[in-house]
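Attaching the record inline, Q. Sequence:
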Amino acid sequence: MRDSDVITGRADLGAIDNTTGEAAFYSHRQPAWHGLGTVTEDAKTSDEVLHLAKLDWQVEKLPILPMNKGKLGKKIPNRFATVRTDTGDWVGGLVGNTWTPIQNRDAFTFLDELVGGGHVTYETAGALDGGRVVFMSVKSPSITIDPEGAADRIDLYTLFANSHDGRSAAVAVETPVRAVCTNTLDMAVDEAQRVWKVRHTIDALDRLEEARRTLGFTERYAAALEAEATVLYRQAMTNQEFDKLITGLFGAPGDGARKHIVAAHEERRDRLHHLFAEADTQDNIRGTRWAALQAVVEFEDYFRTVKAPEALTEREHRANLAMTTLLHDQKNPLKDTAKALLLAA
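Structure, as predicted:
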């Protein structure tokens, strides 16, 4: 079976694994949005995080045997099920001969070495949807725009996500978050790699070792992001120019548009102008193209209309959507387009 390019677990449902009766989630210092899992500052090593996040199990491939009238038939050639060794539960995988699991412990070892030579702090770790997807994140060195003035800090996290269901490659992705308002800057950056993928093959671990030695994409991504952010911060932007940006991103209702469409457009426009010109999250960067981008990002993260499932609050649903974007390596056209328009002007 060929790995796809994205993680395919049901992160949009916030399905933290509870197979063992305990939530498979670890968070450093602060609880996650779902309120589950172990929150502690005590974990010093990836082995300790592995245990606290309930990820100290492996995956194996077992033959698939059909059953007919209560009797087992011959195994299906070149087809295997992926199964957890701790519980014997199937984790949703139907894979072929060449698919090789990347074990949870090996994923932690990779992230240890990729980011900090084994000296890193894990921010989160856990499993989704019965163990189909596991993830772990570490905090990288932050960058600060205009340290002596605005001091606008961007925290950088490296997220590693791996699937055990045969549907997707493992991915490492850089996740920048603006500290003052926790805007997730999940956008492409010119001249820098943000995502690295490895497929589940027999030489997967060799490729992980190669990535540790050669990529260094964390540092390159941080440098490229800082350069772009600094360019935008150094350029002023008026309310009138910001209004043109809004039109460029969302368009405007045509002649004869229905009242509810016009009303929705005006409400969105007013909200964006408030975020740009008045919101305290822009106090330190007010009146710049960097503030304009942050207003759009904040609107996208927190204020765009979403329909939450009955089982979730709107806040929980927005957080789950953000998690889905990260784990699936989904593009965000609005954020990318806004940055491109602001850099091009």
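The chain has nine helices and 13 strands. Residues 259-277 form the longest helix (19 residues).

More tomorrow.
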